[in-house]
Design brief:
The complex is a heterodimer of chains A (97) and B (590). By secondary structure, chain A is mainly α. Helix content of chain A is 80%, strand content 4%. Chain A has one domain. Chain A contains four helices and two strands. Chain A has a two-stranded antiparallel ribbon with strand order 1-2. In chain A, helix 1 runs antiparallel to helix 3. The longest helix of chain A is centred in the N-terminal third of the chain and has 32 residues. Chain A is elongated, with a radius of gyration of 20 Å. By secondary structure, chain B is mainly α. Chain B folds into two domains: 482 residues, Sodium/glucose cotransporter (Up-down Bundle); 51 residues, no CATH class. In chain B, strands 1-3 form a two-stranded antiparallel sheet. In chain B, strand 4 and strand 5 form a beta hairpin. Classes of the chains: A mainly alpha (97), B mainly alpha (590).
Amino acid sequence: MNDENNDAYWKANIRLMLILLSIWFLVSFVFGILLVDTLNQIQFFGFKLGFWWAQQGSIYVFIILIFTYTAMMQRIDRKYGVSDDDEDDASKNEEVK
Amino acid sequence: MDAQTLTYIFVAFTFSVYIGIAIWSRAGTTNEFYVAGGGVPPVLNGMATAADWMSAASFISMAGIIAFAGYDASVYLMGWTGGYVILAMLLAPYLRKFGQFTVPDFIGTRYYSSTARVVAVICLILISFTYVAGQMRGVGIVFSQFLNIPIFWGVIVGMAIVFIYAVLGGMKGITYTQVAQFCVLMFAYLVPAIFISMLVTGIPIPQIGLGAQVLDGSGLSVLEKLDRTLIDLGFGAYTEGSKSTIDVFAITMALMIGTAGLPHVIVRFFTVPKVSDARKSAGYALLFIALIYTTAPAVGAFARINFIDNVHNAEYTEIPAWFKSWEDIGLIGWEDKNDDGKIQYSPGAPFQGKPTFAEQRREDGSRQITNAATDNTNEVYVDRDIMVLANPEIAALPAWVIALVAAGGLAAALSTAAGLLLVISTAISHDLLKKTFAKGISDKQELFYARVAAATAIGIAGYLGIDPPGFVAQVVAFAFGLAAASLFPAILLGIFDRRMNKEGAITGMLAGLVFSFSYIAFFKFVAPEMNTAEYWLFGISPEGIGSIGAVVNFTLAFVVSRLTPDVPAEIVAMVNNIRIPKGVNKPSMH
């Protein structure tokens, strides 16, 4: 484990986070608040679209964002060899093999 | 069996489950008392977090607020869920890796300063006490309305239950009771919502029912019908807001980062075994919270439709029984301004202030209002907090559903109260005593002090619940505003800015705290008559000022930290370490 590897890991983490947080901002603050009047012109399954984003859609996207982050971080953790399951899993895997 | 007998049975049953769990999960060490030994599986922690988070206000008041505020209530829906995205990505995993017991622990260690720790304790206690008073009050209200027990005794019973499982079991007892409480409150929220969605739209899923057609043959969707009805009665459209865009933006932001900065929520993520579990459990927590938060808008809309259908232009003598029973408690009031014997519902307050009643009833049996009537046409006063509790009755649901709702309201209030009391007591025994003023105490002594602090905090919370200062309802803005402006930036910078030093962090926290506190106090208590948009800073209400407080905190912290000495090398090493999931401290065995 060297500093360079850890810095690269941290950059990958920040990049993923920024992408997901821009979606977080988009669905709530942009769709649900700033553009709500424009989007309300569009009908969406019986809802005005802006209203739907504010009271339903944004919440669904939030859930997806967290689980996406969890899954992708798991991969990034492993790629850079900093995962927290290595410690447990390494010993288990050896026993199985 | 009648609703009251059933309610007694449901409440007695759920309470004995909570106590049983408390005895089973007694805490033996400070580690178990503070963070449940750090071995809680992520799904269970998600449930516990959801119960911890969903307070008496979420359960009892939120749908009512949505029913009467329409689009404007979106700030709560987005604000109180979006915070978990921030928590999952920006705070929870790193704080878990840090691996200590409390939020002030992190701030004190990261900023190598007892002053920073004590400032964090002050923020934490201010935030948590404002929050807990409302919970105890919620317990009292449920007891008095469903079981006919005076609020005083309701609060005493609630205190006794929380005392047993929080003082005995600490975080371990609280965690497992919260899991049970989550199941109770979710069931209690969803069952009536499904029934009502079926009644109004024929669709059993409330989230879809909200967009579906109403079953009255009009061919309109729920929201179209609501918009039209409200506009006909002279209200604004349900799906359009009345707050300014900047205020909606600021309130939503303050609630989001305030949520992420609430100590009793953050500390839940200290209890899972690993860093990756902290991320996962934030996801589960939001999933469970969303079950209720996406249902609430449907409940609110259905309740408003049902209310108008049942009440507007109805003869008082033919009004359903629920109207009269809530009138008896004083949460509904009717003044027949045009003497036609019918109830007319339109915008504006029907009379000045909350209703006060004369001894004598009118001829038709309605209660005589003694307030001065206003000159609009609205004749009916309704306390919006009753919507969730009255919903099963308004929709004529079976008695067991009413009993279930009572048990759910209690579960919501007790679970949040217990979580808050725990962070208060650990902040005192661990941060103030063990780490600052009484460094020599043993683990056993610390555990003893934690229990004493928990018992004392319960006593104070109970007192606030029985005899609430008039401003309790006003101060929720405090909890979120202060968390957003003080703790959140300090924690975030501690993780993401390696050069943030103690001078910067302490300046930032104090500035954010003082700024938000004074702004809210000024408009809520000093000059409430000036609490209108024209006097607000940038048009931002006290509810939203936490987001400006956070900006003040960030800016000052950044500037001060760049002008003062560097962070010591061992702290930089610590920050590097918490950024890496590998090497997390092991949970103790359960």
